[in-house]
Design goal:
By secondary structure, the protein is of the alpha/beta class. Helices cover 33% and strands 23% of the residues. Strand 1 and strand 2 form a beta hairpin.
């Protein structure tokens, strides 16, 4: 079936597919009302999507039933890259994990690692991916695939990643974001979360020489609203400053030597929890979010952390009678950030093109 309908209807195809992707329970009648187009056009586009395998066919008499995506039409790969470890995940459209692998390479050249390790790993699986999402610690500019600063990688100068990565001799688009924001992209893409939420991620990376000591802490925060993260004017949104170095809060400052012993020293753990609880509760109140996700925090008493955050939240709220936050501890299985990078790919391929004046879709050509 040829869908040579011109620019306007190309937009309608992309937008209709986006609506089905973002709203699992949407039906053709709702699409008519949302896009302000007649039922004949919706049916025409629906038939095109069915014929080309994007949507599962329904009986013609069941037009009010929810439309169902073919969840295996396209796949996404996501990789979290830390200097000490790396995680690769491949999912389908609904977030089903089809493949995962952990690496322990010492990475210094990120582009080289993608080319020499990740690309061959994906090729070996036998699945064709439509995009690769890359999650990195540090300050990044997603639109330019630019790493501005990354302390873990010792990057104090700008590094730009390529627009595409070659997999099976084909260029595959590459998308980049901060590792914490990628975690949040997983909530947006696969859980369809649009209400404002905060995610606070902290991973405690062990010392190679002594497993009782912590080499460094990786993480930060990210604020999402309407399915989008706050990146900030300088791409620094979500970075947590050391406010407890300020004289008035000196007693709560966690020194580097104290961080090293967080796994074994209960007193330092308690101090860190109070420090973090104050930051989380304050930011959750300022941004007025309903939900706060906590991920990571290995070897910590999660119940104690939640209790303290809830306690400080009630103290800081101007309107505690109705400004409340749900604290959710996610069971982080060490693949969630790479998993979220897969979500970033789907959001970039399906949602973002529809936000531009002129749609430049990578998955729907202007003339099909």
């Amino acid at each position: 079936m040829q869908l040579s309908l011109g620019k306007t209807n190309h937009r309608q195809v992309c937008t209709m597919y986006k609506l089905i992707y973002q709203n699992p329970n949407i039906n053709r009648k709702v699409i008519c009302d949302t896009l302000a187009i007649d039922r004949a056009m919706v049916t025409h586009i629906y038939n095109y999507l069915v014929e080309h395998g994007w949507v599962i066919e329904q009986e013609s008499t069941l037009k009010r039933l929810p439309l169902v995506l073919n969840e295996n039409k396209i796949y996404a790969a996501g990789v979290e890259i830390q200097p000490e470890y790396q995680v690769l995940v491949i999912t389908n459209l609904r977030g089903k994990v089809l493949f995962e692998k952990r690496f322990t390479e010492v990475v210094r050249d990120i582009a080289g690692f993608l080319k020499n390790t990740i690309s061959p790993a994906i090729e070996s699986i036998g699945l064709t991916v439509s995009g690769l999402g890359v999650a990195l610690p540090g300050i990044v500019v997603p639109s330019e695939r630019m790493i501005l600063r990354s302390v873990p990688f010792g990057a104090d100068a700008e590094v730009q990643l390529p627009e595409n990565i070659i997999i099976n001799n084909e260029p595959v688009p590459l998308f980049l974001d901060n590792d914490v924001r990628c975690w949040g992209w997983g909530r947006v893409a696969f859980n369809k979360e649009t209400e404002p939420f905060f995610v606070f991620l902290q991973h405690f990376i062990d010392s190679k020489d002594n497993p009782d000591l912590i080499n460094r802490i990786s993480g930060g925060s990210s604020y999402f609203a309407n399915g989008k993260p706050c990146i900030g004017a300088n791409s620094c949104g979500g970075e947590l400053p050391g406010i407890f170095r300020i004289e008035e809060f000196r007693s709560l400052h966690i020194g580097e030597d104290e961080k090293e012993t967080l796994k074994s020293n209960k007193e330092n753990q308690e101090k860190f929890i109070k420090n973090y609880a104050l930051i989380v509760s304050y930011l959750a109140t300022v941004f007025d979010v309903k939900k706060v996700y906590l991920a990571g925090f290995e070897n910590f008493d999660k119940a104690s952390l939640i209790q303290k955050i809830e306690k400080y939240s009630s103290e800081y709220c101007l309107y505690p009678e109705f400004q409340k936050h749900e604290i959710v501890f996610e069971n982080d299985d060490a693949t969630k950030t790479a998993y979220g990078a897969c979500g970033l790919v789907f959001e970039e391929l399906i949602v973002k093109p529809c936000e531009n004046e002129s749609i430049d879709s990578r998955i729907f050509p202007k003339k099909a």
